[in-house]
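dumping this here so i dont lose it
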């Protein structure tokens, strides 16, 4: 009887791992219309932020840029307050709109609203058209495939436990059943491990050409520059580090607290 559970486990493992392999291959395939996307091109800060961390990273970069220029206040409690209601570009204006008419809103709420803004979508479309960003359907397929492999791994464990319990304890068949279920579990676990190594967060956004450009920017960006002993922070270096590395580049405890407020509800 437990053989039925074994067949179910193998089917789930093969189907989900196969889908993940196909989705990963599609994400890594260079676009036909832009084979030389990374040649002779320099990324802007917002483009770097999107390729490295997606729309939420773009929002953080815009918030911090405005905060450094005293046009917006970022409180350590995780609230953003507008000081100057006139944005200097479309992304800043969309951030002000996302904060709302009252001029104050929690940073996690701003991220969610700003991610759906026309300016962010336009930025994403430009990067996709240039062959630097992964198209949304491809990225969605990779994320969904990883979730399905995780589900299959859990299903194998549950099915294996049920199968072992079905075997009479006085017979030697329990060890044999567990060994058979260990094979599909190893397949799904190995697939998840490879995905964790080969599909870091930025690869969900940047195409291979975009990843090459990100590596060039990352090689020249500082680790942390928002709190220097000289008292004269390097905005360009810090904003570049923030775009590439996200909150890891922030040393200021109050600014870090403001940006990390979303961790209770969102994954960075």
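and the seq i came up w/
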């Amino acid at each position: 009887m437990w053989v039925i559970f074994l067949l179910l486990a193998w089917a789930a493992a093969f189907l989900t791992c196969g889908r993940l392999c196909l989705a990963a291959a599609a994400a890594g395939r260079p676009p036909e219309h832009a084979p030389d996307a990374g040649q002779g091109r320099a990324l802007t800060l917002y483009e770097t932020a999107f390729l490295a961390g997606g729309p939420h990273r773009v929002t953080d970069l815009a918030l911090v840029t405005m905060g450094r220029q005293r046009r917006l206040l970022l409180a350590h409690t995780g609230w953003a307050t507008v000081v100057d209601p006139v944005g200097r570009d479309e992304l800043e204006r969309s951030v002000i709109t996302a904060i709302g008419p009252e001029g104050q809103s929690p940073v996690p709420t701003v991220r969610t609203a700003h991610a759906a803004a026309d300016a962010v979508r336009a930025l994403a479309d430009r990067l996709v058209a240039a062959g630097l960003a992964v198209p949304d359907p491809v990225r969605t397929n990779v994320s969904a495939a990883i979730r399905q492999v995780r589900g299959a791994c859990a299903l194998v464990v549950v099915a294996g436990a049920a199968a072992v319990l079905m075997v009479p304890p006085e017979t030697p068949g329990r060890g044999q059943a567990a060994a058979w279920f260990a094979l599909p579990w190893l397949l799904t676990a190995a697939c998840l491990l490879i995905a964790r190594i080969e599909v870091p967060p930025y690869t969900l956004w940047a195409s291979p050409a975009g990843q090459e450009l990100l590596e060039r920017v990352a090689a020249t960006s500082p680790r942390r520059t928002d709190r220097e002993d000289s008292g004269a922070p390097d905005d360009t270096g810090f904003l570049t580090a923030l775009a590439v590395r996200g909150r890891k580049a922030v040393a200021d405890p109050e600014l870090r607290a403001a940006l990390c407020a979303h961790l209770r509800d969102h994954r960075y």
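The first strand starts at residue 72 and ends at 74.
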